[in-house]
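During the second half of the funding period, the structural biology subgroup turned its attention to how the target accommodates small molecules. The most pressing case was manganese (II) ion, which had performed well in the primary screen but for which no bound structure existed. We therefore specified the complex as follows and requested a full 3D prediction, including the ligand pose.
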Amino acid sequence: MNEKSQGKIDVVGDVHGHYQELAKLLEKLGYSKEGNTVKHPDNRRLGFVGDFINRGPDSVKVLSLVKSLHQDGLAVAVLGNHEFRLIQDSVSGKEVPTEYEPFLPWLRTLPLFLELEDVRIVHAAWHFSSIEQLKKKKVSDDAFVAETMKKKSPLGNAVKRILSGIKIKVPPDLRLVDRFGIQRSKGRLKWWMDLRGKSFAESFLSPMEPKVHEHGPRDEQLPMLEPYDKSEKPVFFGHYCLPPDIPKVSGQTVCVDGCVTCDKTLWAYRYDDTQILDASNLVQAGIKSD
Ligand SMILES: [Mn+2]
């Protein structure tokens, strides 16, 4: 990879099998297709936050493209909860969709989180102590994957936190529903903030209705939070299916997942080295909008 391009990266949200939207987004970011790969005139590279598969119509095409970009050194990528589940199923001998099988050896080379010179990438939450626990673990190791499936496994919990986010139970009488109208017993927290004394409305990343401003999480529900300091590197993540109007940049964190399955729009963040994070660097493209 070109030395100068090291700090310039375009981080793309959860693709979930939506190849058409991915192609549109890459075009908008200035990449042009060359065979089974894409190139940028300034030798920028791509970053993927995981969850390449399921939901959309073209998971195999997405896997093929990301795999070849990754193997050619044009993209970096981490695993999402969907790929990790697939790997767990395969290790435990459960049936795995046949079309995904050829990609398993490659998927098992991908990391659970990525620490680059300038930035960090993880699927759902950069939780320092969980990442510390997982530092020496490899998804290619059957014994590690098997360990994560055991009940109350500390390694399993560490993987859950970084790949599925940090959740707390919400009082059922509040009847909180997510953006799809489904009542939820748990809410997904803004894991990078100190949420002590904050309301539920302020604490949840994926918005819930009705907005509760009078109550919030109790302090004893929050001991696992490890706020992400302003002095840390920028961290990019996906996973949260954010509606278009919800802010995606907060402090040193950027959520690039705008929910391609519901909005047919895929998001990315154009990061240049030494840049201060700003929402104006978000790019979106889709098959309806654009
Ligand atoms: Mn996810």
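Two results from this model are relevant to the next phase. The pocket of manganese (II) ion is lined by residues 14, 51, 80-81, 123, 239 (CB under 6 Å). Residues 1-5 have pLDDT under 50 and may be disordered.
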